[in-house]
Structure to design on (1038 residues):
């Protein structure tokens, strides 16, 4: 039988910012979006030195070595990327395998995928982190290469599943931190994903060096990191609008 | 917050340089002049009594726990009966030496050379050892860095845990003296078997008088100071101190402060009797708790007062200085006395024994920031979560404390050595990371064995790389080997040879100790000696365990062998000839080959390719060492523990095939090579846990560095405690964390005056970063810092 293969650019063990407890984060390569602030440009496609091809068996073997740490801490696995749904067959194979072992599984997704194709897989997850980068479809397209229609649609569907969800906003000064955008975000969440919590992540430039290394310098944009004060104000605004915020850092 | 008096004492502890006081050696020598011809155990007991009678008595401002080993607040004493030649050789440069400098006045130096050293010439343990050690053993053992046991003939042994539970607190020294007298009355001088016992019990009477005299002199001194004191509050304190010192250690303690003062008098007496390494405080939170509880319930003290008293004891434990040679100081860097104190863990009945005093001890270390006691915790599955969080909290302060131990692994190690399960459950830590039970006589750190040298000999026709001396047993040149298995065999033969010579050096030292430096005072604190009428050095303890050989460089030799296997045999990327030339050249001109060597899997990343070698080597070390027995017929033991020994041992080893350059540090305990555990702390822990910890009954040690930020939140602290629990569930014994940022350490190097209280984990213990030599500081900074957690 043909081996199930996938492409990853890292498995980071002892990851503690992407869910509960001590976790292993599997970074899958490939992404349909091209966010201008992306900190992992090595994840855009498969043909660079960061990305390696692995079999399901190899991933399972590596993950199993860390199960004892998940069990003691209430941790587990987090699928990240890139966009982890981009390799949907490989994601499905991993989720099915680890579901059978009863491992806690979380995903970090942009929300840009075909929901029907992945519904069964998503339902096996224990926690969902999904992004909501901008409420304005035109701005969203300009900043990420895609409109936000599919993402908002998927958010509504995910909201109907019985899975804890955190909606992350990568907060970038002058891009998506305006009051108007935050209010629209809060309104959307309240009406369509009422159980969701929001986590604000401050934009950082730590991934910028990778653009030069990958020969992608022409795609490198530099934005402003919001100040601590701005972060607090935004958090306060969202909370006043009746949305719960959370922090995993 | 520290009270004003604790803060003042802390400042003096941080800022004062230790000074050598000659009083103890003066009195000790004069006493010996008077007792010539008597039995050696009685001479030593009499010298102790004379010291207690004549030693200057000093109570410092604001002190609550009193007693000092000499004329300075930070005093180091000399024990010329063990060794004086190194003092003679080194004392003119005491002030200037890089590791652990001392102050000593010219007057004192002249006095020592004129009055003290001449008496001991030809009489010291060191001279006896050096004149009797076989030549082939000597060339491996004496100041070589290949084998090292100089702390067993230049120093006293220490390495005991006074039995407060069953011997000292219930009886007091009046009780001990009475028992000795009663036993003495039953003996007959015409019976050969009674002769030694008679001397032993006479000695017990002398040392009991000694410690009680010392305490009474402190009582008198406190009374004298109270009479002069104008501040009514301090006057009352001094009167109380006077009362306490008149009661303990003659009688069983009745209050919390009496219990602590009792402990310090025992500690101080042990210091005066032999200047010991690793005079441990055992399960302090267990044997002192009843006094705490009683005083709290009676409203005599509150929690703050108890904390202040514990801090006062911590300062006492940190002020005295273990005077050691510069060679020994390289192995035991940082003025460390290795007084280990254990809190938490199961009681003898198997229930969790964590109590309020356990928390107070953690807090005292957090607030006082003294390098002593070596604070250890025992963790088991039912340890309270509050305790786990308090442990994580202390870890997060970045001072390297506490040493975290698996309660069950420790008990397992003791049962492996034949302790009954109840005693095994009651273990506490000795020195660095040795699981230990208080009713035991054992040399817990007998010889350091340099695994790097064994590998070097096998790869270099039995010769040292740096000096070309033929010290090993291998005759074959590296290029003449035909398989990896053959090379591995050669390494194991070299290791076996080092083990054999370690045993030879230990047996001789053990024998000389029984003849020359019996331990009457120390024997009073160890159960069994009184019953048997036998000195501890002669096997008087209830349990006698064989000496511990400590393996140094497990990680680096596993890496080295893995590199030979992959580069030469599995992947054929180089030849033995080329590798041999590269090692001889210390990789100069072989940059490409070194890159390949560095890319071979390294121990500490959960890679079986190399970890399997570490398991095989460590199992062999145990099996080979365990074949030998000591002078009591007990099997020798193994350990992979720390101390700072991985630096001096590295200095004598040339380049190794894993890419390590000549003279670089080796590896400590079961820790990975510095900077090579690049995967994650979970991988480093999995590698370390693969070692069969239970057979290495002398203890195993894992040091990891974590980014401090990771412990700032409660989530982070909880994850740390989960990490530890997972590690222990894999069967491992110990882990300790350094959580200071590299940036902070660099700043401390630049402006040491601003960072004098910065404690870091060296290996198995913590000490002031600024008190470490530049080289040690660099070694600490170079440890991999796991950022991702």
């Amino acid at each position: 039988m043909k081996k199930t293969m996938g492409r990853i650019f890292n498995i980071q063990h002892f990851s503690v910012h992407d869910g509960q407890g001590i976790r292993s984060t599997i970074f899958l390569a490939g992404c349909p979006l091209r966010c201008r602030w992306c900190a992992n440009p090595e994840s855009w496609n498969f043909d660079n030195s960061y990305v390696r091809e692995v079999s399901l068996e190899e991933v399972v073997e590596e993950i199993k070595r860390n199960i004892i740490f998940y069990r003691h801490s209430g941790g587990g696995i987090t699928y990240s990327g890139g966009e982890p749904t981009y390799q949907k067959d490989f994601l499905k194979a991993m989720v099915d395998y680890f579901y059978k072992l009863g491992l806690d599984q979380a995903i970090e997704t942009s929300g840009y995928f075909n929901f029907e194709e992945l519904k069964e897989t998503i339902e096996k997850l224990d926690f969902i982190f999904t992004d909501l980068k901008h409420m304005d479809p035109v701005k969203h397209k300009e900043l990420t290469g895609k409109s936000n229609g599919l993402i908002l649609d998927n958010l509504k569907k995910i909201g109907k599943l019985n899975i804890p969800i955190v909606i992350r906003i990568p907060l970038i000064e002058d891009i998506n931190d305006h009051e108007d955008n935050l209010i629209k975000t809060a309104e959307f969440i309240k009406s369509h994903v009422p159980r969701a919590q929001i986590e604000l992540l401050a934009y950082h430039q730590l991934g910028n060096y990778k653009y030069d290394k990958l020969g992608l310098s022409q795609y490198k944009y530099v934005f402003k990191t919001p100040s601590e004060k701005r972060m607090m104000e935004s958090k306060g605004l969202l909370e006043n609008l009746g949305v719960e915020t959370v922090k995993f850092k | 917050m520290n009270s004003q008096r604790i803060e003042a004492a802390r400042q003096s502890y941080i800022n004062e340089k230790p000074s050598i006081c000659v009083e103890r050696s003066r009195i000790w020598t004069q006493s010996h002049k008077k007792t010539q011809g008597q039995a050696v155990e009685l001479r030593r007991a009499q010298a102790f009594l004379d010291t207690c009678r004549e030693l200057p008595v000093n109570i410092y401002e604001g002190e609550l726990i009193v007693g000092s080993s000499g004329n300075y607040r930070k005093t180091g004493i000399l024990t010329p009966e063990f060794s004086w030649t190194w003092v003679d050789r080194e004392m003119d440069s005491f002030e200037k030496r890089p590791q652990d400098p001392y102050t000593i006045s010219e007057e004192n130096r002249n006095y020592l050379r004129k009055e003290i050293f001449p008496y001991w010439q030809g009489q010291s343990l060191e001279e006896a050892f050096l004149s009797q050690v076989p030549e082939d053993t000597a060339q491996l053992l004496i100041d070589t860095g290949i084998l090292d046991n100089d702390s067993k003939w230049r120093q006293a042994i220490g390495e005991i845990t006074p039995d407060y539970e069953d011997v000292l607190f219930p009886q007091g020294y009046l009780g001990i003296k009475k028992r000795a007298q009663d036993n003495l009355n039953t003996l007959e001088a015409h019976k050969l078997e009674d002769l030694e016992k008679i001397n032993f019990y006479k000695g017990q009477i002398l040392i009991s008088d000694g410690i009680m005299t010392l305490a009474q002199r402190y009582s008198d001194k406190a009374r004298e100071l109270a009479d002069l004191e104008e501040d009514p509050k301090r006057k009352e304190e001094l009167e109380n101190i006077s009362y306490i010192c008149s009661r303990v250690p003659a009688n069983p303690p009745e209050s919390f402060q009496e219990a602590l003062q009792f402990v310090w008098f025992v500690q101080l007496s042990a210091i005066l009797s032999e200047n010991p390494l690793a005079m441990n405080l055992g399960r302090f939170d267990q044997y002192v708790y009843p006094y705490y509880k009683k005083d709290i319930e009676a409203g005599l003290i509150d929690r703050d007062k108890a904390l202040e008293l514990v801090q006062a004891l911590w300062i006492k434990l940190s002020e005295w200085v273990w005077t050691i040679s510069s060679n020994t100081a390289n192995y035991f860097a940082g003025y460390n006395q290795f007084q280990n104190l254990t809190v938490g863990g199961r009681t003898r009945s198997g229930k969790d024994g964590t109590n309020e005093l356990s928390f107070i001890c953690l807090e005292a270390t957090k607030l006082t920031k003294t390098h002593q006691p070596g604070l250890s915790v025992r963790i088991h599955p039912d340890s309270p979560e509050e305790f786990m969080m308090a442990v994580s909290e202390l870890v997060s302060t970045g001072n390297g404390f506490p040493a975290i131990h698996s309660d069950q692994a420790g008990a397992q190690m003791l049962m492996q050595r034949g302790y009954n399960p109840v005693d095994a459950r009651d273990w506490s830590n000795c020195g660095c990371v040795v699981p230990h039970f208080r009713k035991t006589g054992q040399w817990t750190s007998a010889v350091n064995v340099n695994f790097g040298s064994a590998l070097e000999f096998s790869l270099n026709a039995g010769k040292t790389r740096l000096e070309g001396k033929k010290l090993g047993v291998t005759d074959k040149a590296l290029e003449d080997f035909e398989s990896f298995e053959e090379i591995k065999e050669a390494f194991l033969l070299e290791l076996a040879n080092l083990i054999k010579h370690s045993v030879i050096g230990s047996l001789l030292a053990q024998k000389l100790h029984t003849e020359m430096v019996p331990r009457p005072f120390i024997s009073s604190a160890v159960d069994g000696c009184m019953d048997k009428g036998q000195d501890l050095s002669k096997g008087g303890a209830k349990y006698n365990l064989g000496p511990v050989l400590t393996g140094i460089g497990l990680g680096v030799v596993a890496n080295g062998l893995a590199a030979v296997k992959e580069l030469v045999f599995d992947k054929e990327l180089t030849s033995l000839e080329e590798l041999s030339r590269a090692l001889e050249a210390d990789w100069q001109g072989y940059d490409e080959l070194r890159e390949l060597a560095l890319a071979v899997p390294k121990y500490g990343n959960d890679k079986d390719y190399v970890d399997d070698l570490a398991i095989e080597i460590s199992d062999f070390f145990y099996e080979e060492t365990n074949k030998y027995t000591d002078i009591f017929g007990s099997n020798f033991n193994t350990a992979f523990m720390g101390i700072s020994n991985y630096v001096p041992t590295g200095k004598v080893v040339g380049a190794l095939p894993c890419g390590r350059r000549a003279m670089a540090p080796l590896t400590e305990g079961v820790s990975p090579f510095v900077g090579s555990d690049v995967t994650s702390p979970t991988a480093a822990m999995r590698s370390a846990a693969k070692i069969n910890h239970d057979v290495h009954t002398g203890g195993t040690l894992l040091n990891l560095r974590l980014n401090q930020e990771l412990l700032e939140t409660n989530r982070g602290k909880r994850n740390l405690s989960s990490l530890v629990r997972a590690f222990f569930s894999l069967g491992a014994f110990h882990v300790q964390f350094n959580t200071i940022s590299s940036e902070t350490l660099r700043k401390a190097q630049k402006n040491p005056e601003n960072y004098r209280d910065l404690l870091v984990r060296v290996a198995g213990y913590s000490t002031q970063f600024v008190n470490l030599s530049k080289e040690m500081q660099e070694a600490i900074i170079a440890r991999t810092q796991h950022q991702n957690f």
Notes: The domain at 5-245 of chain A is CATH 3.20.20.70 (TIM Barrel). The longest helix of chain A spans residues 179-192. Chain A has nine helices and nine strands.
